[in-house]
Amino acid sequence: MEYVIETKDLTKFFGKRNIIYHLNLKVPKGVVYGFLGPNGAGKTTTIKMLTAALRPTYGEIRIFNLEMPQNRVEIMKNVGYMPETPIAYDDMTIFDFLTYMGRLSGLKKEEAREQAKKLMKYVGVGKLALNKIKELSSGQKQRVSFASALIGDPELLILDEPTANLDPLGRIEFIGKILSLAKEEKTIFVSSHIVSEVEKMCNYVGLINQGRLIAQGKISELTEIEENDYDVSTSDNKTAIEFLKEKPYVREVWEEENIIRVKVDPRFLDEFFLQFPKYLTSQGIRLKLFRPHTSPLERILMEKFSIGEESD
Ligand SMILES: Nc1ncnc2c1ncn2[C@@H]1O[C@H](COP(=O)(O)OP(=O)(O)O)[C@@H](O)[C@H]1O
Ligand SMILES: [Mg+2]
């Protein structure tokens, strides 16, 4: 597989504190990769290393198959980066700032202006074009910062908590934009501490906690890891549970909101599949639902670590 971002044993110490431990990120081309973890997990530190704003203590980073930071200039030509902290150029107007960023990225003056206009509209700050950065709310600054990341139509976007300061409507709008960028085959690496947001926006995820990557992969695959768990519903759950409780091939069985959850011993799946429906039929109990249990991302997170509440 071709990875747009790949790290090997990426590690960072601040003084004696080991903040990032042997991170092996693998971000395939064209995915929306949610870098999900609680506050203080190490997301920003990692992103700063990916964009060469910080040097790793050791480990390797390859972006577009080129080594970072050795090929920083070449790599960053094709990366739109939205840092966690909003823009520093306080005294510039939005229009001047975006034009300036366009010029820095190599656009001609006219092109830079055109892009600035187009992007201001796109992110919803068109009417504020002549306002100074310092006059903006944090949400407006975040919009401008997103516009700045999109200058030059980069192949890869690296966004550090891009929705942190947006209001609920702004978030929905933003997620919609990410989904449409994904359709254009862009690769998007986006950090967040909000599970529901990652579920809506991303198809890949890397879970980071205390500087360690604890799971990584396609969300649809990660949420299917418990393949020996089944959800069952019948016209008489009580009797069905009594039956299952007695069976050696059932490790655990309990009821959750009218759904019977069954953990089956994987060595005896056949017995479960054959005997259980047969028993139900013999008792005149109707099977209403019978499917593998898919844990949503949230559940996996709860199992791996307790992630903070949404801090809106
Ligand atoms: N420059 C720094 N010097 C020392 N410690 C730092 C520095 N930057 C971040 N940290 C620490 O590293 C940890 C991870 O921080 P950060 O990467 O910002 O987490 P996140 O973005 O996931 O919230 C935190 O404990 C933070 O206090
Ligand atoms: Mg951060």
Automatic annotation (TrEMBL):
It comes from the Archaea. InterPro entries: AAA+_ATPase (IPR003593), ABC_transporter-like_ATP-bd (IPR003439), ABC_transporter-like_CS (IPR017871), P-loop_NTPase (IPR027417). Keywords: ATP-binding, Nucleotide-binding, Transport. SUPFAM superfamilies: P-loop containing nucleoside triphosphate hydrolases (SSF52540). Residues 5-235 form the ABC transporter domain. The keyword Metal-binding does not apply. It holds the Pfam family ABC_tran. This is ABC transporter. It comes from Thermococcus litoralis (strain ATCC 51850 / DSM 5473 / JCM 8560 / NS-C).
